[in-house]
Amino acid sequence: MTTNPPGPSAGYQRSLLSFLRTEVGGASLLLAATVIALIWANSPWASSYVDLWSTELRLGIGSFAIEYDLGHWVNDGLMVLFFFVVGLEVRRELVFGDLRNPRVAAVPALAALGGMLVPAALYVAINAGGPGAHGWGIVMATDIAFVLGAMALLGSRVSAGTRLFLLTLAIVDDIGAIAVIAIFYSSSVEVAWLGVAAAILVVTVFLIRFGDARRPHGWGWPFYLVTGLALWIATVQSGVHPTIAGVAMGLIVVVRPRADGAGGLGTPDAPTPSERFQAAVHPWSSFVVIPLFALANAGVALGDGVLSRALTSPVTIGVVVGLVVGKLLGVALFSLGAVRFRIGLLPPGMRRRHAFGAGGLAGIGFTVSLFVADLAFEDALLRDEAKIGVLIASVIAVTLGSLLFSRARSRDDAE
Length: 415
Known about the structure:
- The protein is built from 15 helices and two strands.
- By secondary structure, it is mainly alpha-helical.
- It has a single domain (10-186, 241-414), classed as Na+/H+ antiporter like fold, CATH 1.20.1530.
- A hairpin with a 2-residue loop joins β1 and β2.
- α1 (9-41) packs parallel to α10, α8 (221-238) runs antiparallel to α9 and α13 packs antiparallel against α15.
């Protein structure tokens, strides 16, 4: 019988608890930034909102420069930090967490798969042949910050096992979203620059693998900053969406302890590079980058008939149906099917009825959904319709998930 390799359980638990606290805290700022963006975009000062995020900013030397408006600098630049944290979390879960054990991870992983496929299928069914058909990726995402925030508000109505299920589901969902962005929502690829990006990544992995052990404290942040910036520039020029550079860097950061101590500091409890970066970067991602992203992207002007048109738009309807109905059905049916066919087991404390509440909350797509909406549509009207759908769906998903968990708790108490 095989067993999983031992890991630094104390360090893993420390990182996981820190990750959860930061995500829950960041959810309140994310919500506040969303409300501010909506009020600002629909106020007498709405033009200043548009002007701010349309301001051009050019960074470079001589003829070699990258020029974006501020909105794109947030989406294509600062969001790299968010995806870097996602990469760190995925790598840690693959090495030390539930994702390292296929049988334990099978049920939430299949639930995540159902929560991506069923919503996308419903969206396509509603928008097939129309101008909004390319937006199917919008409904595949689950916002981990808002989901964790909602679970914190629900308290004991969500069991520890269900929290673990939803956390694992959200992480697998992030992996799926990253793949979708890289494959389907990147512009035309420049093969030469893609080769440069691949070469940078290979050299970085080599230096980490053979150079980290020869340094007293391992590679420090300047090494990762320089190599990460080079990789980001190469991906920008290649046409692959640059946030993939953040994910790639997060996946290759050293996560296992060294023989001379977890962080190469000579003590078993010293943090690994992954833990150090998680502690340093995650607060910036949750408390600065994500609120700025919401401020730059959630400001949809609802006047001049925009809201009334959106409510009858196939794009808006597809997003709402996909996130609310599709996530609920996909997560619940795929997870219960996995249990029924003995592919895996639900975590301790999670009952089958809880899968429906989990599916309800998983419909909070928000951050990545807004991100994909910006990538999917060049037409501003379609983007706004999609964003309105994401906002409506997120409110419904929070309400629906809360009601389903409350009902499940009542049945648990009755038994």
